[in-house]
Amino acid sequence: MEENSLIHINLEKQRLLKEKIEEATQELELVQQETLQFEAILRSHLSDLIIEEQELSVLYKELKKAKKLKRLQQKQKGKKLKISKELKIQQKEPLKIKDPEDEKERKRLYREAMLFSHPDKFSLDHEKIELTTEITTQLIELYKNGELQELKLFHLHIMSGNALAGDNLLPTTSLELAQKDKYLENKLKDLLEQLQAAKNKHTYKVLKEYKDPMSFLQELKEYYDDRIFKLKKRTRKA
């Protein structure tokens, strides 16, 4: 009898936890949806600046890497050492496009994929920032030097979400009551942390706290103008 009573209490506790999880999930989805919609509007107004900034950022990282490797080799073999071709940043030949329609399609695919996977969208997730930086670096390389078909395939890979996919699988083993309680409690805690992080995201705060959220566009424009100006100075010798 006592055991049945404990089981009943556990089941009721789990029911309440599931309700809270459902509420938190719905609220999180709403916050994320509102944020994504607002960010999409902002990106549509700043797409050229966003793409230019990312291209310059990738170039700057390549220059820093090459400079570091050059210093290392000069230290090892002396200043007269010629850096091997593998370590040089090769000047890219102008992309020769015979068909203007192909060039138009290439540009469309590139811009769509770049805006979809830009690292700024994942500012709260350091692992995603590294991943998206790698993705956009590959995308720039394909856009400049790859075949149109290669770009189409990579565009599909990005837009399908596969390039950014994470392991979000839930446990599949059966859980005892006590274990399930713990699992639900942890899941709720994780959801609430995600919800708080989503509400703390700057663009969401702008959306909810600014009298005119679209005025944030000017702040972003000034940020990208300044960022691009500095990056151009750092990469002007490239």
Question: What does this entry look like structurally?
Answer:
The chain is mostly helical. It has helices spanning 2-77, 100-117, 126-145, 148-159, 177-200, 202-209, 216-235. The protein contains seven helices and no strands. Helix 1 packs across helix 5, helix 1 packs parallel to helix 7 and helix 2 (100-117) runs antiparallel to helix 3. The radius of gyration is 25 Å and the shape is elongated. It starts with a helix and ends with a helix. The relative contact order is 0.14. The model is unreliable at 166-175 (pLDDT under 50).
Please render the helix and strand layout as text:
Elements: H1 2-77, H2 100-117, H3 126-145, H4 148-159, H5 177-200, H6 202-209, H7 216-235
Helix pairs in contact: 1-5, 1-7, 2-3, 2-4, 3-4
Summarize the structure.
Helices cover 75% and strands 0% of the residues. The protein is an all-alpha fold and 238 residues long.
Number of strands: 0
Number of helices: 7
Low-confidence stretches: 166-175
* Computed CA radius of gyration, to the nearest angstrom: 25 Å
Q: What string gives the helices and strands in order?
A: HHHHHHH
In which range does the helix fraction lie?
Answer: over 70%
Largest sheet descriptor:
none
Q: How does the overall form come out from the CA principal axes?
A: elongated
Q: How far is the N terminus from the C terminus?
A: 80 Å
- Binned strand content: under 5%
Mean pLDDT: 78
What structural class do you assign from the helix and strand content? mainly alpha
